[in-house]
Each structure stands twice: as C-alpha cells, then as structure tokens.
Amino acid sequence: MPCGLLFGFEIVNRFYRGILRLSCGFSCDTEKVEQVAEEAYSLKESLDKYFMRNQRRMQEAKERAELLGGANGESSHVLRIFDDEARAMQSAHNSSRMLEDAYSTGVAILSKFAEQRESMKGKYDNFGIVREGSSFGDQLDDLMVFVAGVE
Question: Could you name the domain of life of the organism this protein comes from (predicted)?
C-alpha cells in the first residue's frame, strides 16, 4: 500500500474507533489492549526496516571488500615496490640524521679540545714548561693530531 494511502487509512481507522468508543462505551482495558497491539505492530515494522537496512549495509560492505581485494591483488606487486622504496628512503633519512648527530658531536668535542688547549697553553707557558726545541702549545698540537687525526 502506498504511504499516503496507509496514512489516510490510519486516520480513518482512528476516527472510526473514536466514534465506536463514544457510541458503544468501550472500557479502558480494551483501549489499552488495542494501543499495545498497535505499538507492537509499529515496533515490528521498525525492526523489520532496521534489519533490512543492516542487511543492505553488510552486503555493501562485503561487495566493497571484494572489490578492494581484487584491486589489491592486481596491484600488490606495485604496492610492495612502493613499500620497499619508502623503507629505503626512511633508512637513508635515519642514516643521514645519525651522521649529522655524529658530526655535531665531533665538532663539539674538537671545540672543547681547542678551548682546553688554549687554556693549558696559556697556563703552562706562564710556568715555562717546555720540551726541548718546542713549546707546550706544540706538544698539545701533536696530541690533538694524534687523538683527533686533524692538523
């Protein structure tokens, strides 16, 4: 039955019941039973609609999964290549970052050595401690070349 006709039928049905109630004097119990029956029927219809919507959604989800499964099956090789390339890029990025950290640590160490050298050179030159033919600063330079490998 189309929705408009059903709605019209419901209005006529309620009107008819109202007239019967006035003319026949139905008891409250009969009205309550009818009301409960109507509510049960309405709930049953709502539940049926819910189950139909849910079933349709599940079917659509199943179809989407099948379509995506087919698409992934055909292009899985390409996706693996992209995954491998992404991992290689991440590894290169991590290596670059570690090299930058190592470089900055080395620069910090060498700058501290230079500060200590200047400090010690000034202190020991003031005391006159020298090796034959060289100053203490030259000895520290030799030590830095040996330790850091830098001239």
Answer: Eukaryota
